[in-house]
Amino acid sequence: MVTHANKSKLKQFWMSYDFGIDGDYDNLYRWLDEIDARECGDGLCSFKLDVGDEEPSRAVLRVIRKRKVKLRDKDRLYLIWRTPDKLVSGKFIHGSRRNGPWTGYAVSDADETEQEG
């Protein structure tokens, strides 16, 4: 069972959410407010949950769905947490990676013209 009441077993999470213009922000924000999540910038928050022995990404997604947040195919949720051995782990719990808006800005060697004297 996932809960936020037992402070001794709380696990720290960071979550990026991208629901587009018409996503179910009302239910997501209601849940985030109920668990005292902290804002970390546009579309990013931090919160603590007790996920017990359940795999963290499955546990958080299960609780989000239980809270009736409607997830469409184009919606994305990326979750970040520390593993028991203190490594940082992250994965999409809904949706997938896209090309970044910065794709194509870097100049590669192939883009430069070489001139010799």
Give your account of this protein's structure.
The chain has 117 residues and is α+β, with helices and mostly antiparallel strands. It has one domain (7-97): Alpha-Beta Plaits. Helices cover 18% and strands 26% of the residues. It has helices spanning 25-34, 56-66, and strands at 11-18, 38-39, 44-49, 76-82, 88-94. Strands 2-3-1-4-5 form a 5-stranded antiparallel sheet, covered by helices on one side. A hairpin with a 4-residue loop joins strand 2 (38-39) and strand 3. The longest helix has 11 residues, at 56-66. The termini are far apart. The model has no long low-confidence stretch (mean pLDDT 89).
Q: What is the number of E strands?
A: 5
Range of strand content: 25-35%
Distance between the termini: 72 Å
Poorly predicted residue ranges: none
Structural category is alpha+beta
Give helix % range. Answer: 10-25%
What spatial form do the alpha-carbon principal axes imply?
globular
CATH architecture label: 2-Layer Sandwich
The SSE order reads EHEEHEE
What's the CATH class label? Alpha Beta
The CATH topology: Alpha-Beta Plaits
Strand order of the largest sheet: 2-3-1-4-5
Largest sheet: 5 strands, antiparallel
Please give the domain count.
1
Quick check: average pLDDT? 89
Gyration radius, to the nearest Å? 19 Å
Helices, by number, come to 2
